[in-house]
Design goal:
The complex is a heterodimer of chains A (283) and B (431).
Chain A (H helix, E strand, L loop, with lengths): L3 H4 L12 E4 L1 H6 L1 H16 L4 E2 L10 H6 L2 H17 L4 E4 L2 H10 L8 E4 H10 L21 E4 L2 H5 L5 H10 L35 H10 L5 E4 L2 H13 L5 E4 H9 L19
Parallel strand pairs in A: 1-2, 1-3, 3-4, 5-6, 6-7
Helix pairs in contact in A: 3-12, 7-9, 9-12, 10-11
Chain B lengths: L12 H29 L15 H20 L8 H33 L8 H30 L10 H27 L4 H4 L2 H9 L4 H25 L7 H11 L12 H7 L12 H9 L5 H5 L1 H4 L6 H20 L16 H5 L6 H5 L6 H14 L6 H12 L22
Classes of the chains: A alpha/beta (283), B mainly alpha (431).
């Protein structure tokens, strides 16, 4: 039988023998919408039997926004503290679902002595699918669960696709998550994607409704005829949701992990998956 | 008879000497022009370019390998010019034609020098000559077609494309060089009267000659005249390079060689640096590196960065191209002020050159950096300029609040660390 600990996310203290650290990020820790992405990720990691842990209250903001807003020393303070924490727990491999966290952990932290293998959650999920740990659903199930959701488009986050060249892994996972349905590509995709408007610290700035980048980009997504806009970044999630609303449309905006959870039927109130692994070394 | 033609055929020795004197003069103007820009780049902080050429041959190759590869691929193979439809086709066409004519001229002069040293070294004849003439004759058409496309685009100009009056001079000059080049060839065919392969290896020249009904004497006379016009145009072109948009021939590859920009990476600042300089981030143009200042001259104002900028697309006061051009203006003004000994007239980068709203409009999406054909890093200019603003207390409102929260709570929401795992509660089964 499952114990509560088996269903949730163990911290590095609860599971010191973790293989991969799940970097949750501030958005998924504090933003109600993004929290759902983190929960979807935990369900998927559990389902695939991944031995992971989170830093919990020891995690701090990576400082991406601070650095790009121009507050270099605040960034360095946060980076130093995080690197110290990551090293204390001997972290080697990190998965993050925020492309800004991925870029900071990978490229910014390397300048300050923090060297880790960092993957975006779509890369890990693609890896798990390829290894058969997250089974692709039979074709017969194609229209179950999410019938009527319509075609899906994918908005490439700048810090994922352009800055770090990660655009095929998300599509691989999407192919499984929407099996049978077609992906409606926007004109600007992959490395040529267009911004959601939240990078460079703009997430924290007010924007004149007439000048919103998110409205324009969501308009491009809707022009594909898609009823679901998938993305792989918590900032994009917020901006595209606002943008869809500003366009007076009703398309769903979801993270790829959420679409996959939906497809695999891992959403609550479903019982924990029978293949859920034993809790790794929790005491 | 072996197909060939006499170098400087029909050109008297006095004209040949005048030709070389003019060549030297135009190259001197060119060198002086480059030197003027080079002095501007020297205003920036050192990039230790000398280090690149010190050490053993293997060590030097190790250091310059990456840059050489970038120049070969980005500029040589025109990789970064891709993706702009007809504009790309026209640029590649003009480039291929131009390079062929340039290399062809160098080969011709090499042959000329060698054959003066010893007649047996002359190689501009026979099969080589036929291939040479044919290649240049055909590729010259690409040069003209590219020029015509860009002339047309000056008339129907995309909004993002920059424009200077000298652009007309450059393009009309190219057109005149191409047309007079073919005319010289046609007139030469008329007086030389080559036969067989020697004539047919220049199909365009031969075709043009067919339209000119001139006797040999008239052809010789016209040839001499048009040859001089063509030479003058070429020398004017060489001398113009550093003073017109043509300067991208020099600054573009130079910058591509030095710019190993990796997207998503920012230059760090150390406390020691701040203590030594008494400032955070650039406040005047001298605080940028020599490589960054060179990039200002590499910019062609092609406008690709502006076309992909989401801030520009939503009518915010930011165009990456404008930022680069404004900084270039500041570089020139700074040099002028310093030359006049007026340190007080050195323009400030903030407000006087670039407004704070411009800097805050950027989403750091990297689209501009990714698209620039000469690898200008507009984003690093913008983000490091922000550093100075922030250090001077120039950020207020919600973004400043987010920074304060990150400082005090370790997250921009300003919520306590103890609540970081609150999201996991919903994962636990209800009991």
């Amino acid at each position: 039988m499952s114990t509560p600990a088996e269903l949730t996310a163990p911290t590095v203290k609860e599971n010191p023998s973790f293989e991969i650290l799940y970097w949750v990020g501030c958005a998924a820790s504090y933003d109600r919408r993004a929290q759902r992405v983190a929960r979807a990720m935990v369900r998927l990691l559990r389902h695939a039997g991944v031995n992971f842990a989170i830093l919990g209250k020891e995690e701090k903001c990576t400082g991406d926004s601070a650095r790009r807003l121009g507050d270099e020393f605040l960034f360095q303070e946060l980076a130093t503290a995080n690197i110290e924490t990551l090293n204390k727990y001997h972290v080697k491999r990190i998965v993050a679902h925020c492309p800004h966290c991925v870029n900071a952990l990978l490229k910014d932290y390397a300048q300050f002595g923090g060297h880790y293998e960092v993957v975006h959650h779509t890369q890990l999920l693609a890896e798990l699918i390829r290894a058969g740990k997250l089974p692709a659903v039979a074709a017969a199930d194609v229209n179950s669960g999410n019938a009527g959701a319509g075609d899906v488009t994918y908005h490439d986050p700048c810090y994922l696709a352009r800055v770090n060249g990660i655009h095929e892994a998300p599509r691989e996972v999407l192919a499984t998550a929407i099996g049978g349905r077609s992906l409606c590509e926007m004109k600007r995709n992959r490395a040529n994607t267009s911004c959601c408007g939240a990078g460079g610290g703009r997430m924290w700035m007010e924007e004149d409704p007439k000048q919103r980048v998110s409205t324009q980009r969501a308009g491009e997504a809707l022009a594909t005829g898609a009823k679901t806009v998938a993305t792989g970044c918590p900032f994009c999630l917020t901006m595209m949701s606002d943008g869809v609303a500003a366009n007076g449309a009703e398309a769903r905006v979801l993270d790829i992990a959420e679409l996959l959870v939906e497809r695999l039927g891992l959403n609550p109130p479903a019982a924990p998956a029978p293949s859920a692994p034993a809790t790794p070394a929790s005491s | 008879m072996t197909p060939t033609r006499e170098t400087f055929g029909n050109i008297p020795l006095s004209s040949q000497l005048a030709f070389y004197a003019l060549a030297a003069a135009s190259m001197a103007v060119f060198a002086w022009g480059v030197y003027r820009r080079w002095k501007l780049w020297r205003l920036g902080t050192s990039i230790n370019a000398r280090d690149l050429i010190t050490g053993s041959l293997a060590a030097v190759w190790q250091k310059v390998r990456g840059g050489a590869k970038r120049v070969a691929i980005d500029a040589g193979a025109q990789q970064r010019v891709r993706g702009h439809g007809l504009g790309t086709v026209a640029h590649v066409s003009l480039y291929v034609g131009f390079m062929a004519l340039f290399v062809g001229t160098v080969l011709l002069e090499t042959d000329n020098v060698l054959s003066h040293l010893w007649h047996g070294l002359k190689f501009h004849q026979g099969a080589y000559y036929v291939a040479y003439e044919f290649t240049l004759d055909v590729l010259g058409l690409l040069f003209l077609l590219g020029t015509l496309f860009f002339l047309g685009r000056r008339l129907v100009k995309p909004p993002a494309l920059g424009h200077r009056a000298t652009d007309w001079y450059v393009l009309l000059g190219f057109l005149a060089i191409g047309v007079t080049g073919y005319l010289v060839e046609a007139l030469r065919i008329l007086w030389q009267q080559p036969t067989g392969l020697g004539a047919h290896c220049s199909p365009v020249g031969l075709w043009l000659a067919g339209w000119l009904h001139l006797g040999e004497a008239e052809a010789r006379h016209s040839h001499f005249l048009v040859w001089w016009i063509h030479s003058f145009l070429v020398f004017a072109f060489i001398a113009s390079i550093p003073f017109t948009r043509l300067f991208h021939f020099i600054a573009g590859p130079m910058h591509i060689f030095l710019a190993k920009n990796v997207l998503g990476v920012m230059p760090p600042v150390t406390m020691e640096e701040v203590e030594a300089t008494g400032r955070v981030g650039p406040a005047d143009i001298r605080h940028f590196s020599q490589q960054q200042l060179l990039s200002l001259d590499a910019c062609m104002e092609c406008g690709r960065c502006e076309e992909v900028c989401p801030a520009f697309a939503t009518a915010k006061p930011l165009s990456p191209k404008r930022v680069v051009q404004d900084l270039k203006g500041a570089m020139e003004k700074t040099a002028a002020a310093l030359a006049a000994g007026k340190e007080s007239e050195v323009p400030a980068l903030h407000e006087a050159t670039i407004a704070a709203e411009t800097l805050w409009s950027c989403t750091a999406c990297n689209a501009c950096v990714n698209t620039c054909p000469v690898r200008v890093d507009q984003l690093t200019f913008i983000l490091t300029l922000r550093r100075h603003l922030v250090a001077e207390g120039g950020l207020s409102g919600t973004a400043a609040t987010a920074l304060r929260r990150m400082q005090s709570n370790g997250n921009p929401w300003g919520l306590p660390a103890t609540e970081r795992t609150a999201w996991t509660d919903a994962l636990k089964p209800k009991s």
